[in-house]
Each structure stands twice: as C-alpha cells, then as structure tokens.
Amino acid sequence: MKRLLGFLASIGIMAGGASNVMAMTPINNHQKIDNNGIKNYNLKEKDRISGEKTLVFQFSGWIDKNKKFVGGDADYTSSLIKQYNDIQKWVVENKASNIELKSTISKFAATANYGRRQLINDVSWLFQKDVKIKSAIAHSESVGYGDYSYSNTVKILVNGNEEIKNFNSYGEEVFADFQLESKYTIDINFDYDVKNDINYTDSKYNSEIKLPDIGIKFSANDIETILSYSKSTYSNLVNKYINSVKGTSISHNNVISISKAIKGEDNNYTIGDKFQDSYIVTDQIFYVSFTSIDTDGTFNMLISY
Helix axis angle, 220-228 relative to 2-10, nearest 10°? Predict the structure, then answer.
C-alpha cells in the first residue's frame, strides 16, 4: 500500500503535479458543396468553418386555377419540412456543432437586389434536431393600387411545446403580384465547429502508455484513478493518443471501464469481459475504455504494465 500511495503522489494525484501542454489537431478538409445545397468554406487553421444554406419556396397557393394571383393563404408546410430534414441530414453528416447564425436574408426573386431584407426573428431552430413542424402558412392580401401584403406564420413543436415562428423581414412587406409569384429565398450564413467522435477500438498496442512497475499490480479502480486524473502525465498521454488516432482535439477524458484483452492467432487484440472495480489486474496488456465531455463516442485503448 505504501508503494501505491508513493506512486500516486509521484504523478501528482495526491500532491498536485504539473500538467503537460498539448498541441491541438486542427480540423480541415471541409471545403465542398454537398448534396443538400449547403456550402462549406475551409478557413485558416483553428478558425471556425463558415457555411451557407438557401431555403427556396414557391407559394403556389396564391395562384388560382386560371393562373391569376388572388393572394390569401398559401400552405408550404411540406416544402419547409423537406428542407428542415435536409438541414438535419447535413448537420449529422458533417458533425456540425456550436452553430451560430451570422445573417438571414430573404428575397422574392422578382424584386432584384433591392428586395434583399434581413429576417426579424432568429431561425436557429432549423438546425435544432427533433423539431416538429405543424404548419407553415404564407399570407397575402390586397392593400390597393395593385400591391399586396406579405407575412407568414410557422407553428412548431419543441419538446412537446408549441411555438410560433415566422420568416418575416424588416421593412414594409408590400409587393406587386408578379413579385409574390416569384420564388422566395432565405439565405442563411453561419459558423460552426466539427464534432468528431472518438469511437474506436485498438487491435494492437500502439498507445505505448505503460504503467510503471513498482512491485505490485493495480486494481481496476486504481488504474481508473491513475489515468483519469486531469493533471497527471497519463491523462495527457491518453488525450494525445486519442487525438492522434481520431483527429480530434479533446482535453478531457473519463475512464468508464477496464476490460480483458484477448489476443487472437493473428496477434490482434479484441475486447473481452469487464473487470470489477476491486479486481487486481494482472494481465500484461488490457483495455481501458474512455469517453470525453468534449465529444461523443467511446475509445477502447490497449494499455500495458
């Protein structure tokens, strides 16, 4: 026990050791235009990534069977749902997180550039998952002299609670009929980070992380304590190895289990049963499973005595 206590003190778990400074791995290679029409621009290292999404609507409900503009209510719920789903698909595929909207500009195509207007309300809910769109209605009615008003209302459910949203813009929303017959677009510009997960299982002992031989073997709980302590050299080595394998930039880790490493005929390892906290780990090589508050996933790492 004295040797164990002395070892824990030597790595700073009992006496506050110094931590190492790690280099973060920059995220890159995100310059593309994907199938959902969202543009991604690769910026300088360590900068956030900028993206652009354009929503496109055609309010055909304002046109009667004789192709005459009559205004009233135009239901575009199905179109909005489809475009919301496209955004959600993009968020998942690109592992986008910390999305921050920079501008949201609306425009009827037939108004040329003077018709570009900033939306009044925040539309970040479009990037929030599990939003249920109940209805989306665009309304227009005559205000005289051949002009028509424009407004819209969107009803959504967030965590079971109904909220009222809209895509209304600053300024007087009055247009000619031919303008309201043209396509309505909303250009959304935003910045975001890429959230890489750490799902991975070592098949070979490549981490080179080795617990010192102090004449005793550690329990699973002792190993968890040694590797998880944020100011220890071991915790920094764990983060560095995970980042090198997965291209992430985590700075925190948490041990969730210690497991048996089973060596196959091909000399590769697979993960076996978990050890109980009090179990004395005598195997030369074993698995330690890590999670991180910085990202998703579990990294099963081979570590040795």
Answer: 20
For 280, the token pair is 């004395």
How many domains does one find in the chain?
2
Q: Are residues 80 and 173 in the same domain?
A: yes
> Do 70 and 21 belong together in one domain?
no
pLDDT in tens, 81-114: 999 999 999 998 888 888 999 999 999 999 988 7
**184-215 burial string, b = 16+ CB within 10 Å, else e?**
bebebebbbebbbebeeebbebebebebeeee
Query: Is residue 210 within 8 Å of residue 271, measured between CB atoms?
Result: no
- Report DSSP state, residue 214: S
Closest by CA to 301, choosing from 234, 209, 223, 226, is: 209
Query: Which alpha helices (H) appear in 29-151, and where do they start and end?
Result: 77-93
Around Cβ 52, how many Cβ atoms within 10 Å?
Answer: 16
Domain that holds residue 217: 2-27+196-304
Place of tokens 């090589």: 285
Residue finishing a domain among 174, 194, 214: 194
